[in-house]
Amino acid sequence: MEKQRESRIDLLRGLALLLIFVGHSEFTFSGFVQHSRGFADASDVFVLLAGVSAALAYYRPDGSIQFRRPWKRAFTLYLVHMLLFSVLASISGALFLAVGPTPWADMNSFWAAPYQHGAEALLLMYMPGNLDILPLYVVLLGLVPVVFWLHNRSQTILLCVSCSVWLASGIGHINLQNWALDSREWYFDPFSWQFLFIIGIVIGIGLKRSRPVLRYNRPVFAAAAIFAIAAIPINLAVYLGLADPPLGESYHQLVSKTNSGPLRILNVLAILYLAWSIRLVHVAANRPAFGPICAAGKHSLPVFSLGVLLIFVAKTLMNTTAITALPVQVAMLVAGCLLQLAVAWWLEEHQRKAIRRTDVVARLTPGRA
After folding, report:
1. DSSP 227-253
2. Longest alpha-carbon distance in the chain
3. What pLDDT band is residue 4 in, cutting at 50, 70 and 90?
């Protein structure tokens, strides 16, 4: 599988992880950064690339379907999610006893009925903010074998079914329950977000079959560039209150994060196409200077988990101390990003050493060389 790794995917995922940390730490400038990338944000990029990566890792061109590996990965994500939930619930409980309510209001409510909410958490029905991303991947990875099976019969039917579910969930507001949020529903509606994930799978299968699914085309490139660039000032102007939303109230549905609005999907597809078409991105993804960022994308689960913990630390420090000056926030941002990159680099070096040891043993062991 290692031969099939696409360095551009690792680079984009690594950047997305850092942007998730910046956007969710609630620094003074977090909102501006979050809305300065157009209609889509790092979450959209990550889900799309998760679909691409799932296809590259688990799809078999011979048409056979494997269940064990994607479901094993989904179970691993579930266990990591529950570990993160347990750690953060314990920390927030200790802080609640020591200094009062934490800035994480969703988790504060957990201790009002810990046994009930604990059972709901096990069933993925109690997910405070920032702990609602991994459950989405648990559900999506669970669907992978079915998606592959349907794709092998008809890619068109797969996309039509997926699009129909996306439309129905967006129009009818079909969602799963999440008792931790005021909305009482998943922040990332899996019925909606599966469409972007499956688009990623279709792209990934095309790449695995060496099909030119992202082949450069000048008119398409120009359209993607115009759309992606125009989305930035439009979204920023609405966020900053400098302009009314275009298309009125319909605009909010078109950019809905919960329902993966169509403008978000178009925007993230444009970003992926541009990244794939610009040679500088490919060059950067293979340069040592960008190695730590690519390593973060490659080891996305531990880096993401660390990022969630750092987000909680940053939010707590800013809300429980008087030190909230902008230079301090910038220092926290830099420290958090560097720590994530350092951990990613250490994991990558550890993996390389393990591979080298395995190769040495294979060469020295008769019959295994």
Report:
1. HHHHHHHHHHHHHTTSSPPTTTTHHHH
2. 72
3. low
CA angle 95, 118, 309 (to 5 degrees): 45
Q: In whole angstroms, what is the distance from residue 213 CA to residue 206 CA?
A: 6
90 and 118 Cβ atoms separated by less than 8 Å = no
List own/partner pairs for 222-226 with CB under 8 A and 24 or more apart. 223/270, 224/269, 224/270, 224/273, 224/274, 224/277, 225/270, 225/274
CA 47, CA 194: separation in Å to the nearest integer? 9
Task: Tell me the percentage of the chain whose pLDDT exceeds 90.
Answer: 69
Q: What does the alpha-carbon distance between residue 301 and residue 307 come to, in Å, rounded to a whole number?
A: 10
Per the rule left: phi > 0, alpha: psi between -120 and 50, beta: everything else, 260 is left
List the one residue out of 250, 55, 58, 79 whose CA is nearest residue 155.
55
Summarised one tens digit per residue, pLDDT across range 137-166 is 999 999 999 999 999 999 999 999 999 999
Q: Rounded to two decimals, what is the model's pTM? A: 0.92
A 10 A CB-CB count for 109 gives: 17
Note the pLDDT of residue 310: 95
User: Any idea what DSSP says for residue 288?
Assistant: G
Residues forming a β-bridge with 252: none
> Can you give the pLDDT at residue 2?
42
